[in-house]
Amino acid sequence: MKSYYNVPNGYIESIRKGTAGLNRMRGGIYYGSGDRDGEIARLRKEIEAADAIVIGAGAGLSTSAGFTYAGNRFNEWFSDFSAKYGFEDMYSGGFYPFPFKEEFWAFWARNIYINRYLDAPKPVYSKLLELVKDREYFVITTNVDHQFQKAGFDKTRLFYTQGDYGLFQSVNPANQKTYDNEEWVMKAMEAQGFMRDENGIFRMPADGEISMRIPTDLIPKCPDDGSDMKMNLRADDTFVEDEGWHNASANYAWFLSEHVKDRVLYLEIGVGSNTPVIIKFPFWVMTSENPNAVYACLNYNEAYAPKAIADQSICINGDSGEILSEILKG
């Protein structure tokens, strides 16, 4: 097993900084000035003036881009699973104890395909890239759908902390490698009866007949040790942090250290309260430690900051994609 002892771990360092400095964030919550146009104008100015922009992205950004896990999109691809097992969204389906591996992997093939290998329905990620492409930026995200890279962001400036829908890992804890799953996903979609259209996109066949199972011999096995595979998603301490993950973590640490006293914009987009220690809390603390820094929070009904950094904060409530569009119009 490769050692990363001498490589900076931006993930752990950031979490430690955020949790250790939270005591300085007491004193209430700031929800912004209430002047939406003024806040958007101020954020536009900060983007243009910043020496560096650290983007922290959560699920709300992908939701704005059209990657919804329930409703019409879920029904289009998983109505058969919903009818049989009763769950009503993809997130719940990901934790369902399917009685057969063939069904488990049929569900995951669809889930991976639509949330990793299809383009986002709305160009929200492209709008964000347009705003920062000529700036000194870095992205840390808890999203696992790979949409930053698909939109054209520099992959050396991306840190996917929680994994990637496009990767498998072995259940063998001694194996700390990850494996691309695109080829397998396409085979598993075909095996269920989905048909490609003229653009190469899988669609429901004309007769509507699809299978909820894949063939047993298509259940993924590790090419190195023959063991079962699972998703490379951080669910417990078996999550594989491979060489690419550690390189990205180190790049994040280096980026933060290079700009620790600069005019930094910590731009948080769509980050909820499920995992605040990864992005939200560290952003608050790093802003408080640098009088030249600005913290911006774009979120739907969760745009807020500690009053301790109110003078350095921009809070804009609303759909992230719409906010980015308004900034670009200026």
Helices, strands, pairings?
Elements (H helix, E strand, L loop, with lengths): L9 H11 L8 E2 L5 H14 L2 E6 L1 H6 L6 H15 L4 H4 L7 H17 L6 H9 L4 E5 L5 H5 L6 E3 L2 E8 L7 E3 L1 H10 L3 E2 L5 E2 L25 E5 L9 H16 L5 E6 L10 H10 L4 E6 L5 E2 L6 E5 L2 H10 L1
Parallel strand pairs: 2-3, 2-10, 3-4, 10-11, 11-13
Antiparallel strand pairs: 1-12, 5-6, 5-9, 7-8
Helix pairs in contact: 1-10, 1-11, 2-12, 6-9, 7-12
Task: Describe the protein in words.
This protein is α/β, with parallel strands linked by helices and 330 residues long. The chain folds into two domains: 10-64 and 122-161 and 241-329, 3-Layer(aba) Sandwich (Rossmann fold), CATH 3.40.50.1220; 71-119 and 182-219, no CATH class. It is 38% helix and 17% strand. It has twelve helices and 13 strands. The strands form four sheets. A six-stranded parallel β-sheet has the order 4-3-2-10-11-13, with helices on both faces. Strands 6-5-9 form a three-stranded antiparallel β-sheet, covered by helices on one side. Strands 1-12 form a two-stranded antiparallel ribbon. The longest helix is centred in the N-terminal third of the chain and has 17 residues, at 101-117. The radius of gyration is 21 Å and the shape is globular. It starts with 9 loop residues before the first helix and ends with a helix.
